Amino acid sequence: MLAILAQAFHRLRLIWADGGYAGALQGWVAALRPRAKVTLEIVKRSDGDKGLIVLPKRWIVERTFGWLNRCRRLSKDYEALLTHREAFTYIALSHLMLRRLNNKGTF
Fold it and tell me: Which of 8, 30, 35, 36 is 20 to 30 A from 100, alpha carbon to alpha carbon?
């Protein structure tokens, strides 16, 4: 998915990732585009922290996943093909945006 995004969105310069992706992903992202480099920033929680810690930018992703899980079709993985799942994700996000633009609230 990142390779498609990097080629489709030429203005993409920064990718945030969870600490679990700190391994081989860094080298792979560095080799994505030879001319216009993409930077990978790993967002980590410090080892001494206990409990719920809100990390920068991570809440945006978690909030979006929460919105998507409100869609019954996306709550379980019914789709056999990834392209179908991607299409239903676009439909769900478009529905959310249209509802907000129309001031009808969310879902």
Answer: 8
